[in-house]
Amino acid sequence: MTSPSILMKAWNLHPKKQLGQNFLADPNTARAIVDKTGVAAEDVVLEIGAGLGALTRPIAEKARQVIAVERDHRLVSLLKTELTAAGRGNVTVVEKDILKLDIPSLAASVKKDLIVMGNVPYNISSQILVRVIKARGCVKKAALMFQRELADRIMAGPGSKTYGRLSVMVQYCATVGVLMEVRAALFYPRPTIDSLVLGFEFKSDLALTANDESFFFNVIKAAFSKRRKTLRNSLAGFIPGFDHQAAAAALETVGIDPVRRAETLTVDEFVRLGNFIYAEYR
């Protein structure tokens, strides 16, 4: 594997900060990520943010097929050239913004549930994770690399200062754990903090199921929109007709004190609250 700095220089390219580009520069780490994810010979992998192909090549060594998505048109020709030189004919490079990719349609086209992997661009990491969650019906599992600050937020529990919207959304539908830590020194350009690769196993059976998932996610978003306010205040007005009095009544009905704050609620409490509001006010 040619180092990212040398490769970029040879192609007269520079990393784009606005795209959150930090390229993994250590091939051993890339192989370890693939090994820990458990990619097998029958798998089809969707790689998000393929970049210079650091993860693409070891994934392609294991998987049946890789769909490598890269938004930056400058890198697409470079990536295709590198993969051809490495003899990786089982990789399809797609030049597209991952936030505009229809993941379910892609899975349907290959007639197989996907493994989603990637060193995701830090500036759209949250948006990418939300899209994967919403497409989880066709996702076998996921292994995504985040900067540590966001990874800690994803795994945080109730009562923590870092517990928030993403924590609840992820923990509602997935079991999440750390696959490995990746030091900042292993990237080019070097970011300010280390990264964590998180593994997501999506639950086939939920202890409590949201009656309407989109509505449920909107309840979570509203609850955390004003973290310092009580739930009665943060939820008031998030849908027409749901004022402070209605919010307090809904919270009391499901056994939640209206003066509690969003970060104190468990996932199950959020589900019960969301289901009640949906049934009564939609």
Description:
- This protein has about 280 residues and is an alpha/beta fold.
- The protein has two domains: about 5-200, Rossmann fold, CATH 3.40.50.150; about 215-280, Helicase, Ruva Protein, domain 3.
- About 40% of the residues lie in helices and about 20% in strands.
- The protein is built from twelve helices and nine strands.
- The strands form two sheets. The chain has a seven-stranded mixed β-sheet with strand order 4-3-2-5-6-9-7.
- The protein is elongated and about 65 Å long.
- The model has no long low-confidence stretch (mean pLDDT about 95).
Provide mean pLDDT, rounded: 96
Strands, total number:
9
What is the overall number of helices?
12
Question: Which structural class is indicated by helix and strand composition?
Answer: alpha/beta
Helix content: 40-55%
Task: Give the termini distance in whole angstroms.
Answer: 55 Å
Might you state the CATH topology name of the largest domain?
Rossmann fold
Strand order, biggest sheet?
4-3-2-5-6-9-7
- Regarding quaternary structure, what we see is single chain
What can be said about the biggest beta sheet?
7 strands, mixed
* Total individual domains: 2
Radius of gyration: 21 Å
Shape: elongated
Could you give the order of the helices and strands? HEHEHEHEHEHEHHEEEHHHH
The CATH architecture term of the largest domain is: 3-Layer(aba) Sandwich
User: Which range does the strand content fall in?
Assistant: 15-25%
**Low-pLDDT windows of residues:** none
The CATH superfamily of the largest domain appears as: Vaccinia Virus protein VP39
CATH class designation of the largest domain: Alpha Beta
